[in-house]
Design a protein that fits this description.
With 170 residues, the chain is of the alpha+beta class. The chain has seven helices and seven strands; from the N terminus they run H-E-E-H-H-H-E-E-E-H-E-E-H-H. The chain starts with a helix and ends with a helix.
């Protein structure tokens, strides 16, 4: 019941990598009904953007009994791409034989979009010709763009160690 109620997509495969179970969160994330993926390989989710080396390293890791944890870019049934933080762990018996694999995916698509937007904003601010800086309540710099740092002769690496009065000489 816990796996059924989990907010993260969870699926299980047999030792050969054939999907044997998916939870409701998997269905919501991927757009696939359980009946469409059970009996198939997780490659059904492949975006085509992950290298063959990625999958070889993944398979080598989990088939040797270790846990794999990475970001992956997969494809929903609709064709839409999504990013997921994925953990895959082998399930073993008492003798150490692998009985199955369990994979957990957390959708991080929106987080990745926000990170991309933040990088765009950072590039825009850093590349602006205008003097741009932010200062906290203690008059310490949170950041200053290159134009501001050059104008006030501030070292870019240590700008957060500088206060406004120190920078402007008051």
């Amino acid at each position: 019941r816990a796996v059924e109620a989990a907010g993260h997509a969870i699926y299980m495969t047999d030792p050969d990598g054939t999907i044997t179970y998916v939870n409701p969160a998997f269905e919501r994330l991927t757009g696939y009904d359980a009946s469409e993926v059970i009996g198939r390989n997780p490659r059904i989710l492949s975006s085509g953007e992950m290298s063959e080396e990625y999958y070889e390293a993944l398979w080598s890791t989990i088939s040797s009994g270790n846990v794999w944890e990475e970001e992956i870019r997969d494809r929903r049934k609709s064709g839409e791409l999504y990013y997921a933080h994925q953990t895959i762990a082998p399930l073993t018996d008492d003798a150490g034989e692998i009985l199955a694999y369990v994979a957990i995916q957390q959708d991080i698509t929106e987080q990745r979009k926000r990170q991309f937007q933040l990088r765009q904003y950072e590039r825009a601010v850093e590349g602006a010709e205008e003097l741009i800086a932010a200062i906290d309540g203690d008059h310490r710099y949170l950041f200053a763009n290159e134009a501001y740092r050059d104008f006030h002769d501030l070292d870019g690496e240590s700008v957060t160690d500088t206060t406004l009065p120190e920078a402007i000489g008051s």
